Recover the amino acids of this structure.
C-alpha cells in the first residue's frame, strides 16, 4: 500500500539516478535537453508546426514521452506561434495539458500550435501533439500569455528594456520562425552528443530536503542557471515537471502506485527568480477508486511568496491496489 516512506524513496531514487547521469560540467540547460532535435516544418501567421523525436533522453520510465517534456513543448512552440502575431512572446499566465494516450518512444511526434486569440494584453494558443506516423492525437495543451507593451522606441536607449524573446521586426511568421530557430540553435550549441543526462536529470538535479507525510510531500529545488528561462526565472516547463513528479510522489503516500497522467494545469502567479530556492508542496486533494488529484504549490523559499499553483489529475489503472480512503 502507499506510504510516506514509499514517496520519499520514489523521489530519492530519481535524484540518486540523476546524480549518476547528470554531468555538472555540462553546458546544457533545461531547453537544451528538452528540445534537442526539434525541427520546424511550417510557420504561418498564428500557427507553427514542428517535428520532435521521442528519443530515450525525453522518455519517462514507461518508455513514452515525459509529461513534463510535453508541457515544455506546449510552452515553447505555442510561444513561437504567438510571436507570429504579437510583438513578442510574453510571459505565461496559465497552461494546461490533457494527456489522451501515450506518445511512444522511438518515434517522432508532431507539435501543432495555433493562436486562437491575440488581444492587446493577452494571447491564447492551443497545441496538439500527435504521433507523426499514425496521426493519433496523444496530448492537447492550452497556453495563455500576458503580452506587456513594448518600450517606446523614441525613448532614450538607456531606458529601453526589450523583453526576452522579442523579435527584431514586426510580428510575422518569419519572426516566429526566427524565434524558434534561435532557440534550436542555442540547443545545438549547448547539447553534447555524448552527454548521458536526460530530461528528468536536468529538471530535477539538486532536488533536496524531501519530507513526506500521509497525503503530502515537500521538497526544495535550487533555481540555478540550468533550469532558468530567458527571463532568468524558473522555466515554465520545469514548473510543470515539478507539478508532475512531486504530485505523483504525494499520491504514492496514499496509494500503491502513482498512476498515469490525465491532466496537468498550472497558474503562473509571479516569477521564481534565478538564484533563489523553490519550495514545492504537493497535497493530495482527492483519492478515489480510479482517479487521484494532487495540488502543488511552488513558493520562493526565502520569502514564502506563492509563485505558481498546479493541479495534477492521475488515472489509477484498474486492477492495481489502491487506497479507498479520502483526505
Amino acid at each position: 500500500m502507499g506510504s510516506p516512506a514509499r514517496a520519499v524513496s520514489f523521489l530519492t531514487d530519481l535524484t540518486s539516478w540523476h546524480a549518476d547521469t547528470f554531468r555538472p560540467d555540462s553546458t546544457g540547460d533545461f531547453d537544451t535537453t528538452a528540445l534537442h532535435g526539434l525541427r520546424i516544418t511550417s510557420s504561418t501567421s498564428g500557427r507553427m508546426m514542428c517535428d520532435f523525436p521521442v528519443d530515450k533522453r525525453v522518455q519517462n520510465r514507461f518508455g513514452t514521452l515525459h509529461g513534463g517534456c510535453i508541457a515544455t513543448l506546449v510552452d515553447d512552440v505555442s510561444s513561437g506561434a504567438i510571436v507570429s502575431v504579437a510583438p513578442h512572446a510574453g510571459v505565461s499566465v496559465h497552461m494546461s495539458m490533457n494527456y489522451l494516450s501515450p506518445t511512444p518512444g522511438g518515434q517522432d511526434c508532431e507539435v501543432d500550435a495555433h493562436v486562437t486569440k491575440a488581444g492587446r494584453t493577452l494571447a491564447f494558443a492551443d497545441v496538439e501533439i500527435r504521433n507523426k506516423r499514425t496521426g493519433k492525437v496523444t496530448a492537447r495543451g492550452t497556453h495563455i500569455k500576458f503580452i506587456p507593451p513594448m518600450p517606446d522606441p523614441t525613448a532614450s536607449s538607456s531606458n529601453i528594456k526589450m523583453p526576452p524573446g522579442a523579435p527584431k521586426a514586426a510580428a510575422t511568421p518569419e519572426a516566429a520562425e526566427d524565434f524558434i530557430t534561435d532557440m534550436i540553435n542555442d540547443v545545438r550549441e549547448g547539447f553534447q552528443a555524448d552527454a548521458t543526462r536526460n530530461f528528468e536529470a536536468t529538471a530535477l538535479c539538486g532536488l533536496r530536503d524531501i519530507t513526506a507525510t500521509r497525503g503530502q510531500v515537500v521538497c526544495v529545488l535550487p533555481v540555478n542557471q540550468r533550469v532558468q528561462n530567458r527571463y532568468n526565472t524558473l522555466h515554465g516547463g520545469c514548473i510543470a515537471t515539478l507539478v508532475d513528479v512531486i504530485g505523483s510522489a504525494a499520491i504514492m503516500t496514499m496509494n500503491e502506485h502513482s498512476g498515469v497522467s490525465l491532466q496537468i494545469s498550472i497558474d503562473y502567479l509571479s516569477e521564481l527568480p534565478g538564484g533563489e530556492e523553490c519550495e514545492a508542496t504537493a497535497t493530495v486533494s482527492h483519492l478515489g477508486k480510479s482517479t487521484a488529484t494532487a495540488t502543488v504549490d511552488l513558493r520562493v523559499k526565502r520569502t514564502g511568496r506563492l509563485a505558481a499553483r498546479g493541479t495534477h489529475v492521475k488515472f489509477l489503472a484498474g486492477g492495481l491496489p489502491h487506497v479507498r480512503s479520502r483526505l
Summary: The chain is about 25% helix and 30% strand.
